[in-house]
Design a protein that fits this description.
Layout lengths: L1 E5 L1 E2 L1 H18 L4 E5 L11 H10 L3 E3 L11 H6 L18 E5 L4 E8 L10 H11 L5 E7 L3 H11 L5 E5 L9 E2 L5 E3 L4 E4 L8 H10 L12 E2 L1 E7 L6 E8 L7
Parallel strand pairs: 1-3, 2-11, 3-4, 6-7, 7-8, 8-10
Antiparallel strand pairs: 1-13, 5-6, 9-10, 11-12, 13-14
Helix pairs in contact: 1-2
């Protein structure tokens, strides 16, 4: 089973590139399931209903979220009614939506879990305890992929070792910088600290450099704008054994390296 996990899609520029290129990745790597982090898919942060439709029709099977998921109130109804659009599960139960979705492929089911880190981020429920609860709720699924939307690399690695052998694969999101530490942990869980970003190359995490510089230099509020110019796709491909539910290969993908074209 091949599961493709796409790093944070940023703005209309990232959405446009995904529409153009995702089908090539899915065909080239014989992708069975595609998970896309879309919490920044709308220009100006957040996720809108229009962006959801764009990502799904571009080939995403599940859209995961993060700390910007709730910025657009028009998304709340979709979070409540569409199981394929997730938000971090460790937000309070009063928050709209869910952080767990079961993909039914007939002969197998795959659990997709979305969690947020708490180090340097919102003081949400403990991701370790939340993961335990979700795995129990899902019946300790044989196949499970986790998007851990977190800032601190140490928190991501710690949760990965905590979950090792209990989930098939973990990919980090949020930092928008693809890390070079793809690996298979001792008990068979595939892992990468951050899948990266789908968006403008000449940017600061997708934002116009001059806006980021102004904010950091002057310390005053700045309205961020999505950068222009060429874009790239960052993603990670997990090959998972259908017999064991464990990862047998991890491949980091970056369209700058021209793996396909």
């Amino acid at each position: 089973m091949n599961i493709l996990c796409v790093g944070d899609v940023v703005g209309s520029a990232g959405c446009k590139l995904l529409r153009q290129e995702l089908h090539k990745y899915k065909q080239h790597y014989a992708v069975d399931i595609c998970i896309v982090n879309g919490e920044n898919a709308a220009d100006g942060n957040g996720l809108t209903p229009a962006a959801v439709e764009h990502l799904i029709t571009s080939g995403a099977d599940v859209i995961t979220g993060g700390n910007h998921t709730f910025r657009r109130r028009e998304l709340y109804d979709i979070l409540e009614t569409s199981g394929t659009v997730l938000r971090p599960a460790n937000y309070p139960k009063t928050a709209p939506g869910s952080g767990l979705f079961m993909i039914d492929k007939g002969r197998y089911q795959v659990a997709v879990i979305n969690l947020s880190g708490v180090v340097y981020m919102e003081p949400l429920a403990c991701p370790f305890e939340t993961l335990d609860s979700l795995l129990k709720e899902a019946g300790n699924p044989k196949f499970c992929v986790l998007d851990f939307h977190a800032e601190a690399t140490a928190e991501k690695k710690a949760l990965a070792f905590y979950a090792d052998g209990r989930v098939s694969a973990i990919f980090g999101t949020h930092t928008h910088i693809q890390t070079a530490d793809e690996q298979i942990l001792p008990n068979g869980t595939g892992y990468i600290t951050d899948a990266g970003m789908t968006g403008p190359i000449e940017s600061v995490l997708g934002i116009r450099p001059e806006h980021a510089i102004k904010k950091m230099h002057n310390k005053l509020p700045v309205r961020f704008g999505v950068a222009g110019g060429p874009c790239s796709i960052n993603a990670v491909l997990f090959k998972i054994s259908e017999e064991t539910g464990k990862t047998i290969c991890v491949k980091r993908l970056n369209s700058l390296k021209s793996e396909i074209i």
